[in-house]
Amino acid sequence: MSRVDFYEVLGVPPSATSQEILRAYRRLVRRLHPDVNTNAGADEEFREIQRAYDVLSDPVARARYDASRAGARRQGASPRTAGAQRVWLGGPYFSNAFGDADSAADPWNSVFLGSRPAVPGSRAGPRQHPRAGADQETQLTITVEQAYRGAHLPIKVPGPAGDRTVRVRVPAGAVDGQRLVVRGCGQAGVGGAPSGDLHVTVRVAPHPRYRLEGHDVHVDLSVSPWEAALGATVPVATPSGAFRVRVPPGSSTGRCLRVPELGLPGGNDTAGDLYVHVRVHVPPILTTEERRLFTELADASTFDPRAPVGPRRDARRSPSAG
Fold it and tell me: S-S: 37 plus which of 42, 147, 161, 213, CB 3.0-4.6 Å?
């Protein structure tokens, strides 16, 4: 088994600050933790990351490690020297390029804060060093109505000890892809260290009536031919309830009516807008009276929807026109 350089394991330079070490550790844990990574070798890589963080996150252990690391380099030992003995770290073993792990002259022994495996029958045992809990990530699917009003929703979070239920506050106006952070609800810390955070990605489920674009809400409005031609004030459903919108005379399918600040609540006290898309529908089956009236309209109207420039209201239909 070969010893590795702890700084290389975490991907940080020897001059890294404690915050940079913590960020690097959390980034690697999110990617390689056995709960989320099932690739071959991920367990061993995760344990190696944990060993590196155990030492570099402890100021005293890190100082001793840096001193021993510098001494090893002066003696010509490589950080990746192979064929080494293993030294107890208060947890899993890692290798020792200097030979006998029990030698009092071994400079690497000083890194481990004097911790060794307990001898059978003795009271001494390995100490657990404080270690911050890893962050966790998950997704939460909500409805458009919950996005509009906000909600407190339970979510199951997997962990080594089984699933946990965490209640997540979804703020009013949450949009698809928004990330929420629940502090202290990630994996538990070790030795009194703080727990990690839970990062929740919001997903808004598709709705049969509404379409969301950021904080703007789009909805289709069905109107009759006479409402579209003459104009009308009709109700339209919105996430906040029914709202009456005025359809101007001469509206065709595809016309878009904008109602300011009737979309989802925004973060700066400014809501999104409601966009109402007009859809003209004709009766699928005509009564005798409706057919008569539509026939009279067809005979009297000069409107040609296929004309390249639009209708000519001053034109007169020829008596011979069908």
Answer: 42
Phi then psi for residue 92, to 5 deg, are -65, 160
The CA–CA distances, whole Å, from 227 to 65, 95, 97, 277, 278 equal 81, 82, 87, 14, 11
How far, in Å, CA of 36 to CA of 29, rounded? Answer: 9
Confirm if 48 and 4 have CB atoms less than 8 A apart: yes
Residue 306 tokens, joined: 């296929």
Among 1.10.540.10, 1.10.3210.10, 2.60.260.20, 3.30.565.10, what is the CATH number of 210-300? Answer: 2.60.260.20
> Average pLDDT of 97-121?
38
pTM beyond 0.85, yes or no: no
pLDDT tens-place string over residues 221-234 = 999 999 999 999 99
- CA-CA distance, 74 to 312, in Å (whole number)? 96
Q: Quick one: tokens of 54?
A: 């155990």
Instruction: Work out the pLDDT band at 111, boundaries 50, 70, 90.
Output: very low
Give the DSSP letter string of 282-307: --SS--HHHHHHHHHHHHH----TT-
Asked if 203 and 141 touch (Cβ cutoff 8 Å), the reply is yes
Distance in angstroms (rounded) separating the CA atoms of residues 277 and 253: 8
C-alpha 14/C-alpha 182 separation (Å) is: 32
Q: Quick one: which of 105, 121, 10 has its CA closest to 55? A: 10
The listed CATH number (2.60.260.20, 3.60.15.10, 1.10.443.10, 3.40.50.2300) that belongs to domain 136-204: 2.60.260.20
Tokens linked to 124: 């001494």
Q: How many CB atoms neighbour CB 198 within 10 A?
A: 22
